[in-house]
Amino acid sequence: MSSGTMRALKRRVMARDNGCCYICGGEGAEELEHKTPISQGGAPRDLDNLGVVHASCHAIKSRQEAIEGSRRARSSRD
């Protein structure tokens, strides 16, 4: 997806959500994020799958997703 497309999507989501983090609800969120990762079936351009987040909330969510991905990978090998 082009950077221009991502910027346009971010503007739309920021306006929709008034800059509020979809994870904690706090104001000042600046990162665009897929709520359901594309690797797990999330739609890349679906506005329902996009939200703005704080960098700290995004980092926590990303760590949790990595842990869950490792667990799934181990389970599929057993």
Task: Chart the SSEs and their pairings.
Blueprint (H helix, E strand, L loop, with lengths): L2 H15 L13 E4 L15 E4 L1 H23 L1
Antiparallel strand pairs: 1-2
Strand order of the largest sheet: 1-2
The shape, in one word, is globular
Determine Rg (CA atoms, Å): 14 Å
Q: How much of the residues is beta strand, in percent?
A: 5-15%
* Helix/strand order, N-terminal first: HEEH
How far apart are the first and last residues' alpha carbons, in Å?
A: 36 Å
Round the mean pLDDT to the nearest integer and report it.
Answer: 93
Q: What structural class do helix, strand and pairing data support?
A: mainly alpha
Instruction: Report on the biggest sheet.
Output: 2 strands, antiparallel
Helix tally equals 2
Question: Percent helix among the residues?
Answer: 40-55%
Question: Got a strand count?
Answer: 2
The parts where pLDDT drops under 50 for at least 5 residues are none
